Amino acid sequence: MTAASLGDAARPFTAAALADLVPAGTRLLALGEPTHGAEEFLDLRNELFRHLVTAHGYRSIAVESDCLAARTVDAYLDGADGELDTVLREGFGHGFGAYAGNRELVRWAREFNASAGADERIRFYGADGPLEYTGAAAPGPALLRLHDFLTTRLPGQPLPAREELLYLHGPDDRWTEPAAALDPARSIGRTEDAVRLRLLADELNLLLAAHRPQFQHEQDALWQAELDARTATGLLRYHAATAGDGPDRLNSLMRQRGLMIADNVEAILHREARRGPTLLFAHNRHLQRTAARIPLGEQLLQWWSAGSLLESRLGDGYAFLATAFGHRAPDDHPAPDTLEGLLATLPFPRSVLDPRQLDAFIGESGGVKARVPADHTYFGLDPAELGRLDGVVFVREIARQQGLFGGGDA
């Protein structure tokens, strides 16, 4: 394959060029990133989202971040008072509020909303559960809010006593013990109290679902109640999986997270249906249409990704744009015979590629391999999966990330 023939599949990146690859009828446009913490991918996400809002009627974005914390960001976009630094710190999970690209997204969306009508304002969502790298949040706050919502609206219904919920739950730190991430014996998730709490949470969920028509006139309060219901039950399932000690424990945790993301996003699409499509931004591994696989020591983690779950629910309404990079400072270079090594020969700093044309070119030449990552912080594009993509963005060079995603001693 020559650079010229490869060039037939590529264009320099513009948001419009990337949007041209999105199929008609897309309800959820998923944009992946190959690694967290690289500002280059946040920048191109912002460029794409601005174009989608101004040219294609998008009015919502969901990101790989805490679904409950994101309410703080959304309120700020709607004009709530607050310092931007505080909103970013409290409104993003995983420390993602520290990134300049996320600051710019929030700043621009608030500015857009200041002159937009009520039905035209941008909404911001977190797609992920309240999960951090050291473990999951306690389910109590969401469960108690759900209980309070139902208590004030269903006075004649025999609800579980709030005092019993408080007793069974106990202090939050029973649930957020960091050691439980690696030691299932330190998790509270399968104790008698947790099992009983999970049963009561199911009763509250049932009441909310059964009486939903009664609450239709108060859409914002209903949205919060259903978010709390999903989150509380999802966290109880996650903590139960954390307490498991079988060989499938880590796969189970990944499955639980994938389901929480898919359920949150499906609810977002239902809420946003009359306002337009939604942009979803997360790691490529979460959004891919195929099962996710991550090597961990001698074990291979495998689970159905949130993207595969969402495609199974949305069909042609789901579109996925993947991203990749070439050189990462200071010395991470793709081998020439890998897909990223091939794309690095393109003349553009950022390229938009039609994956079907790219797949056809690779099929003619052969010999293109998947990139072996230099460390644990990213995963390369698999040439065999190009047919399952709607578009590819290749960034020729990214700066070394800071902190957890920087690799080495960053």
Automatic annotation (TrEMBL):
InterPro entries in the record: Emycin_Estase (IPR007815), Hydrolase/PRTase-associated (IPR052036), UCP036794_erythomycin (IPR014622)
Domain of life per record: Bacteria
Family matches, as Pfam families: Erythro_esteras
PANTHER family recorded: ESTERASE, PUTATIVE (AFU_ORTHOLOGUE AFUA_1G05850)-RELATED (PTHR31299:SF0)
Protein name (record): Erythromycin esterase
Organism: Kitasatospora saccharophila
